[in-house]
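Hey team,

Filing this mostly as a record. A colleague (T.K.) asked me to run one chain through the structure pipeline before their review meeting, and I want the input and output archived in the tracker in case anyone asks later how it was produced. No errors, nothing strange. Just documentation.

Input sequence:
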Amino acid sequence: MKTSKGVILIEKHKFATSNEILSLFKRKLCIKKAGLMGILDPLATGVLPIVFGEATKFIPYIQNDKKKYEIKSKLGVFSECGDYESDPIIYENEKKIISKLDDENIKNTLETFIGEYMQIPPMFSSTKHNGKPLYSYARKNINIERKPKRRTIYDLQLRSFKNDILDISVICSSGTYIRTLIQDISEKWQLHSCLYELHRSQVEPFSNFETIPIDKLTTDNYQKNVISIPAMLNKLSEKICNAEEIDKLYCGLPIKQYISNIDETLCLIMDMKNICHGVGIYKKNYLYPKRLMKR
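Output structure:
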């Protein structure tokens, strides 16, 4: 394979788990090392970034705080897992409240969520407790006390509201549970809610790249869908080094720099031929290797 490292954005289809997509990806491209950058629930669709090859070394340096979702939730309905993976309970007595909701009321409520948002992770989630995901306790009907996590809602817009289906879009920080968000929103109206449809349309920093369905991905066409390591780390500044400096960095030695006010700042190490060699870190007046590619 000509390109054995980078990121490919898979357009995830409904009813498949993210790990099933990852396994199929590895089999189709005969790749051993690959990982997900933010999983999607089985009923969700949309952008699923898969990092593979040596690019997996640099996942911790990807600045991917923002994600965009289009959400449909059904009001007056509740399920244990927060979506239609489990049988929902219908609250007939809430229909009167729903009938009185209007666009202005909804927009005003949505505005109150923009900014810092403290969210309690749902029991049916992959958040860990004593090394085990919360869903493993939930399946045994064990409830774990959870502390709120700080999240950020950058934008929250009403798309439509028809009958009991609320259609909104959100740009939020990584780690935000959408199922919990819609429940917190509907609670402001004293309503239950259940996730009906979820589509992830953007993942930072890959908003300008195309996705491809897993069934269309082949060993013949995958290369044109690969996002390179420099593009994946495009928020880091680049430091161009000569051959001698590159050799020193691979030996674990720092190189002298005459740049001020960049202490503890990460950068992308490039050579004179525009080849990426990894990530470095500035410490005082020196550049040290942080994580390098294989040579």
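Quick notes for T.K.: The mean pLDDT is 91. The chain has three domains: 6-62+206-232, 66-203, 237-292.
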